[in-house]
């Protein structure tokens, strides 16, 4: 990571120490934090992203350079540089946005890396000197030089590659990077920090479907799945983080994961004493594994997954998890319904997918294990979006839970009080000119539930 940072730094330094106006008096390499590029490229998916800030201690940059301590996370868009004199990583707020986008344009999806064995900071210094010579010649010729500078900012990747080859810097493919990260994680000589860092980086790569499938080809997925067995909660957490991304809408990987025992391991973590942050990521991985994969859903039910989730949501201080669990159940219930509808519409004679869904006996399980009541009680949560999810789920479970809802006097009372609350909010919304507003929609769900229950 540090070396990658230095290399990005080389790029950046060549841009702004010399192309710009020699404003930077210190000799230091500067780069935008890698994660900012990551974030921009990353599929915007999950509620998972919001979790990351809770995990690492977050550093709050100012306009001054400040040293970064190990383990501190940097907000997206910060500038990070390696101070060659002290060896410390330093951070400040991002100012030169255009250089960052230039850098992105240069990188064009390829990632650069350094051959650690042959690389020294002396190489870098002489490389920088070379860059400097080049630019000074140009800058003497005013406008023409200006154009040349701009051109240099957009040098083709091949040309850059040549420069880096001279420095024994190689451009790795995603596959090579993943192999390296897995080896790092799998090596008994790696420290805990190195292992976590390897998983953190790996997560970025496996968002891409092809990469996640490549992970299968050299046994990398199994190594990560085995990471769920680690005695270190952080390793469990970050292994789940990688798996959640790798499973996501990727049937090939989902199938391998079931065969590799991922489901049991995820459930064991959810059923045992673990930090909440680990459970969140594990729940996320479980969702990714089950979605659109009826076979995994069957196994989940067979392994007592519903009991595990019930214990989880009934524990104190797990409201955040409870809403996610209910959302998962809602997704599974509706997924099966859609499969039925789709089969009916397309009139398939032997729809295998439907056969598979028919083996998922989710609704009876939910009813038997008290999910009608559990879901109804979650309506007491104060957040609108939590209530929205709960209302959706109550609606989806109506046919299954109708009598249970009837026997729950608290449910009607809660619905009536929410009706009043959202009536008022919907009126305000309407006054603001929103005739298809959020609160109005919530009110609609409440009204139709109340109607069903009368
Ligand atoms: C991980 O390490 C184990 C034991 O050291 C080894 O047997 C296995 O081949 C390694 N797996 C990968 C994918 O490198
Ligand atoms: C991981 O742990 C489970 C129980 O939690 C155990 O059954 C399994 O054998 C372990 N696997 C490895 C590879 O250690």
UniProtKB/TrEMBL annotation:
GO terms for molecular function: adenyl-nucleotide exchange factor activity; identical protein binding. It comes from the Eukaryota. Keywords: Endoplasmic reticulum, Glycoprotein, Protein transport, Signal, Translocation, Transport. One of its GO terms (biological process) is protein transport. Residues 1-21 form the signal peptide. Residues 29-51 are annotated as: Disordered. Residues 140-215 form the Nucleotide exchange factor Fes1 domain. It is found in: Endoplasmic reticulum lumen. One of its GO terms (cellular component) is endoplasmic reticulum lumen. Residues 35-46 have a biased composition (Basic and acidic residues). Coiled coil: none annotated. InterPro entries: ARM-like, ARM-type_fold, Hsp70_NEF-Inhibitors, Nucleotide_exch_fac_Fes1. Belongs to the SIL1 family. PANTHER family: NUCLEOTIDE EXCHANGE FACTOR SIL1 (PTHR19316:SF35), PROTEIN FOLDING REGULATOR (PTHR19316). Required for protein translocation and folding in the endoplasmic reticulum (ER). Functions as a nucleotide exchange factor for the ER lumenal chaperone HSPA5. This is Nucleotide exchange factor SIL1. It comes from Panthera leo (Lion).
């Amino acid at each position: 990571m540090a070396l990658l940072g230095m290399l990005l730094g080389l790029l950046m330094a060549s841009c702004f120490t010399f192309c710009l106006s020699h404003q930077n008096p210190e000799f230091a390499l500067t780069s935008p934090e890698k994660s900012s590029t990551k974030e921009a490229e990353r599929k915007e998916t999950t509620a998972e992203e919001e979790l990351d800030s809770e995990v690492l201690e977050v550093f709050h940059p100012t306009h001054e350079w400040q040293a970064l301590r190990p383990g501190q996370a940097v907000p997206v868009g910060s500038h990070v540089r390696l101070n060659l004199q002290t060896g410390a990583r330093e951070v400040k707020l991002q100012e030169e946005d255009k250089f960052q986008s230039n850098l992105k344009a240069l990188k064009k999806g390829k990632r650069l890396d350094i051959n650690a064995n042959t690389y020294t900071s002396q190489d870098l210094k002489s490389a920088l000197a070379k860059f400097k010579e080049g630019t000074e010649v140009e800058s003497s010729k005013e406008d023409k030089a200006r154009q040349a500078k701009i051109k240099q900012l957009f040098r083709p990747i091949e040309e850059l590659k040549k420069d880096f080859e001279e420095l024994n810097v190689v451009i790795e493919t995603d596959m090579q990077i993943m192999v390296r990260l897995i080896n790092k994680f799998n090596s008994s000589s790696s420290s805990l920090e190195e292992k976590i860092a390897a998983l953190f980086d790996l997560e970025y790569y496996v968002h891409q479907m092809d990469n996640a499938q490549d992970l299968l080809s050299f046994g990398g997925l199994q190594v990560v799945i085995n990471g769920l067995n680690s005695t270190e909660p952080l390793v469990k957490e970050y292994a789940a983080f990688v798996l959640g991304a790798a499973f996501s809408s990727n049937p090939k990987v989902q199938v391998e994961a079931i065969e590799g025992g991922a489901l049991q391991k995820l459930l064991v973590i959810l059923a045992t004493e673990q930090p909440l942050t680990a459970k969140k990521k594990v729940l996320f991985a479980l969702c990714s594994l089950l979605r659109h994969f009826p076979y995994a859903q069957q196994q989940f039910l067979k392994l007592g997954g519903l009991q595990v989730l019930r214990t989880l949501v009934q524990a104190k201080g797990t409201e955040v998890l409870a809403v996610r669990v209910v959302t998962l159940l809602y997704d599974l219930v509706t997924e099966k319904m859609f499969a039925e509808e789709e089969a009916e519409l397309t009139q398939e004679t032997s729809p295998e997918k439907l056969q598979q869904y028919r083996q998922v006996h989710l609704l009876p399980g939910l009813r038997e294990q008290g999910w009608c009541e559990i879901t109804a009680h979650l309506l007491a949560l104060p957040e609108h979006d939590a209530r929205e999810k709960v209302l959706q789920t109550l609606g989806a479970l109506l046919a299954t839970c109708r009598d249970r809802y009837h026997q729950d006097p608290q449910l009607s009372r809660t619905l009536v009080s929410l009706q009043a609350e959202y009536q008022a909010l919907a009126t305000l919304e309407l006054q603001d000119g929103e005739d298809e507003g959020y609160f109005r929609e919530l009110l609609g769900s409440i009204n139709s539930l109340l109607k069903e229950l009368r």
